[in-house]
Prior knowledge:
Shape: elongated
Helix content: 40-55%
Structural class: mainly alpha
Number of helices: 11
Order of helices and strands: EEHHHHHHHHHHH
Mean pLDDT: 76
Amino acid sequence: MVSSVETSHILFAAFDPVSFQEITCYRKPGARPGHAPVTGWPAEAATAGDNINMTVPLVSATEIPLPLFAEDVLAVAEKPPEFAATEPDPYAEACALYGQGSYSEAAKKLTSLLTEAPQDIRALALMARTLANQGNFNEAAEWCEKAIISDKLDAGCHYLLATIQQEQGQFNAALTSLKRAVYLEPGFVLAYFTMGNLARLQGRTKTSEKYFANALALLNTHQAEDILPESEGMTAQRLLEIIQAMKFPSAVTKRSNHEHQPG
Length: 263
C-alpha cells in the first residue's frame, strides 16, 4: 500500500492496481483475497532488478500480509492518521471567501467561528466588513461596536466604524470615530484622508485641506508600493495620486510619483 504521492503506473508496472475509492493498492499478479501470497518477484521486476537500487530489504512470502478486503480498506481509510494535517483555520477560510466576494458564505463561516470564540476581534471586524459590503450597515455597526468593546485600543476598528457611519449619513459620529483612530494611531493615513473627505462633503474646504495635508505628510514616510493599513490593498502611491487629483493648492505638494523621501 502506497501513499498518494507514490502512486505510479511506471514504478509499479509489474503489479496489479486495486482501487478502493481514493486508495490505490498494488498486489502481485494472481494474488487474490484468500489465496496464498505469490512468492518471488515477477519476471519483469527481476529483469529490471540490476538497475534498481533497493532501499528496503526483501521479505519472505510468510512475512507479506494478505491483501485486505474492500471493507477493511475503507475502515482503515476512515481512521485519521497520526500525522494528519491540522484542521483548517475558519478565519482564513472566511477571509478567502470575503476576498472572492462570497459575503454570505463568509458570514456563515464567521458566525460559526464567533459561536466558539465570541471575543475574536479579527472575526468581529471581518463580520462587520462583510455585512457592510452587503449593505447591512446597521448590523455592521453593531458587530463593529462589539469589536471595539473587545479591544478599545484597536485604531482599525474605530476607522471601520467611521466608514460605516459615513455610509449611514452619520457624519458627526464618523468624525468622532476617526479622531479616536488617529489618537490611537497618529500615523493613520487613511483616517486623515477620510476626515478630509468628510469635511469636503460638509463644505468645510479649509478644514479638508488641512486633513489632506496631514495625509500627504504621512505619505512622505511611506514607499510608493507600501500597502496602507485598513485600505484592502491600496498603495501609498495610489492614495497620493487621488489627493493630487483633487487639486487643492494648499494641500497638494509636488513630489515624484516614484520617490517618497522622509518628511
